[in-house]
Structures are given as structure tokens and as C-alpha cells.
Design a protein that fits this description.
The protein is built from 9 helices and 11 strands. By secondary structure, the protein is of the alpha+beta class. The longest helix is centred in the first third of the chain and has 64 residues.
Length: about 375
């Protein structure tokens, strides 16, 4: 090859190498620019998310501090969780009194869901895991998650929920509620979503504490007013039967008196005599749990009346047919039960405070019946 040809070939190779280096440099500059743009977008996205989180937390905190309306706060919390996590649906469930079951107080983004009838059992599903662990739990494929019971999956399929995030609302050291956020697409929730929704859950915990404190103060005032009226009736000139008939309206100011019985215990016959009933239908011998209360001298308070009757080996009272919650207390003189006061409720469980109030009224009634 002639020298001029070799020089030309060498020039071509040099030119191609320079062009390759220039392309590599350009690609490197483009990659660096893309990286910077990506980092900038990520930074801006994080700043925007943080800005929205501060705004939402500010609104919720202001509502917590300004309002004693727990349902209003829970709505703000659920909508905030939905907004910040980008979820399609959101809801808040709170623990039922003296139970591991939770009842939904708010749902958003769903169709055909009745909040009052939608419950999650603390023994199964995501709720059980959240309550056991005390931290958030999420699933990316709710409908195929083997740990989720079929009835819950059916509800989720009806609402086309694909992924679900459940975050605990903790008061003290106890999980008192759960915030749920769900997606109807295959978008999964992240650890950042958990952290953000947990901050909202902490505000909801404060709202529950405030509401409980307020309700406790109001409750104590109402109890004192009821007890004052009961004592006035007890010490007043009313005949015994009129005193007995005056008690239910007084208790009805605080308690559910859907069905109420006052029974006197006859130790000789080992049976009850009717003193007062809120409705017709009570028959002698229709007193299974009532007899247990007299035998033990201790109240019985149920969340599932039929289940407790079955466990105690007694026949449920026909007088309380269809009612789920019961509160039965002894009417005692010293350590001897002379009768019982019994209440039944359909929807509202009786609390320990209800039990203490009815026990006091039962003691006064025992004195009045034997005076």
C-alpha cells in the first residue's frame, strides 16, 4: 500500500475514533442531564409530597384541637390518607367496646358499603395482623392473599380492590382502630405511604383520647344527675311500686332499656317473682342467666347473649328474643342477692361504667324492696 493510502486510512480511523468519542461524550452529557433531571424531579416530588403532607396534617391537627366531633376528625384522617397515598378508597374502623371486632366509622371511594354493618374481626385478616404486630401491614394482591378470609375477599372483589394498606391507630399501648387505604389498580403501596398514613393515625389517636376524655366528663355528670334522681325517689314518699316504675325512665337517660326486668328472688322456691317488666312476655322459669347472677352475686355483661347462654348451659330468655347485648346485676343486701336488674340492647353494647351504675341502682332497689 502506498504511503498516501496508508495515511488516508489512518486519517479515517482517527476521524471515526474522534466521532465515537464525541458521541460517547454527548451520550454521557445526555445521561448526566437525564440523571440531574430525574434527581430534580424526585426532589421536587418529595418536596411537593412533603408540602401536601404538612398541609393535610395541619388541617387534621387543627380539627383535632378545635373539634370534639370524632366522626368529623376520622373523615379528615381518611380523606388525608387517601390523598397522600394516592389511594382509590379509604376508611377508618374503630374497636367495638370490650371487643376485638372493629366497626367502620367512615368509608370513601366505595360503592354499596353500609358503614354500620361492615365489621372486621380481630381474629382474622389484616386486622388481626395489625393488632398483633402493632404496626402497618400491606398486601399487594389482596384477592389472592392466603391469609385473608374469603368473606373479606368477596367485599374487596365487589369494590375491585387490588392492593390494601392497613395502619394502626394506637392509644396508649392498645390498637384502637385501623386506617385502610386501597387501590383499585395494581399500584402497590410503599414504605413511604406507610410512614405518611401512620402520622395521620397518630392524630386520630389524639382525637380518640380527646373524645373519650370529653365523653367521660359528660358521662360522670350525667351519672351523678341520674343517681341524684334515683336517690331522691328512693328516699321520697313514693310507694314501692311507683318507685320501681320511676326507675326505667331515669336509667333510659344513660342506658339502652329496650328490654328491662326487675325480679325478686325467692330463696324458698329457688325461683323469681316479677316485680316489673318493660313489656309483656316474661314467664316464671324464663331466667337462665338471671339465676347465675343470683348464685354468684356477680354481674354478667355480654357482647353475644346467645353465646353466653350456651356457654353457661342455660336457655336464652324468650323475653329478650333477638337482642344481642345483656347486662344483669344482682340486687344485693350485704352479700346476699335478693333479686336482679336485667337490661337487653340490640345495637349498643353495655360498658363497665353502665355495669357500675346499674349495680348502684340495684343496691338501692334491694333496700327499697325489702324495707
Amino acid at each position: 500500500m502506498r504511503p498516501t493510502d496508508r495515511l488516508a486510512a489512518e486519517n479515517d480511523r482517527l476521524r471515526l475514533r474522534i466521532e465515537a468519542l464525541e458521541r460517547l461524550a454527548a451520550e454521557s452529557r445526555q445521561a448526566e442531564e437525564a440523571r440531574r433531571q430525574s434527581e430534580e424531579e424526585t426532589r421536587r416530588g418529595a418536596e411537593e409530597r412533603r408540602r401536601r403532607e404538612i398541609a393535610v396534617l395541619g388541617r387534621v391537627t387543627a380539627d383535632v384541637n378545635a373539634s370534639l366531633n370524632l366522626d368529623s376528625v376520622l373523615k379528615q384522617v381518611a380523606e388525608g390518607a387517601r390523598e397522600l397515598s394516592g389511594g382509590d378508597v379509604a376508611g377508618v374502623a374503630l374497636r367495638e367496646t370490650d371487643s376485638d371486632a372493629m366497626i367502620f366509622r367512615y368509608w370513601s371511594g366505595v360503592h354499596g358499603v353500609n358503614n354500620g354493618t361492615l365489621r372486621v374481626d380481630g381474629g382474622t385478616g389484616l386486622a388481626a395482623r395489625v393488632m398483633a404486630l402493632g404496626r402497618a401491614v400491606r398486601t399487594d394482591r389482596y384477592a389472592t392473599d392466603p391469609k385473608i378470609p374469603r368473606p373479606y375477599i368477596a367485599d374487596a372483589e365487589h369494590e375491585a380492590i387490588s392492593s390494601l394498606l392497613a395502619v394502626p391507630i394506637v392509644v396508649g399501648n392498645r390498637v384502637e382502630g385501623i386506617i385502610y387505604v386501597g387501590n383499585q389498580t395494581r399500584r402497590t403501596f410503599t414504605e413511604l405511604d406507610e410512614t405518611t398514613v401512620q402520622r395521620l393515625a397518630d392524630r386520630a389517636g389524639l382525637a380518640i383520647q380527646n373524645a373519650r376524655q370529653f365523653r367521660g366528663n359528660v358521662r360522670r355528670q350525667e351519672e351523678l344527675a341520674v343517681l341524684y334522681d334515683v336517690v331522691r325517689a328512693f328516699t321520697g314518699p313514693l310507694p314501692c311500686q311507683e318507685y320501681v316504675e320511676a326507675i326505667p325512665p331515669m336509667l333510659g337517660r344513660l342506658l339502652d332499656v329496650r328490654r328491662m326486668l326487675m325480679l325478686r328472688w325467692d330463696a324458698a322456691t329457688r325461683g323469681f317473682d316479677l316485680v316489673w317488666a318493660s313489656a309483656q312476655g316474661w314467664e316464671p322459669g324464663d331466667a337462665g342467666l338471671e339465676a347465675r347472677v343470683v348464685e354468684r352475686g356477680q354481674p354478667i355483661r355480654t357482647l353475644d347473649y346467645l353465646a353466653i347462654c350456651q356457654g353457661e348451659g342455660v336457655t336464652p330468655s324468650a323475653f329478650a328474643h333477638g337482642l344481642r347485648h345483656a347486662l344483669i346485676v344482682p340486687m344485693s343486701l350485704a352479700d346476699r342477692a335478693v333479686g336482679v336488674l336485667a337490661l337487653w340492647s340490640l345495637d349498643r353494647p353495655f360498658s363497665r361504667a353502665d355495669e357500675e351504675l346499674l349495680t348502684l341502682v340495684g343496691g338501692l332497689s334491694a333496700l327499697r324492696l325489702t324495707r
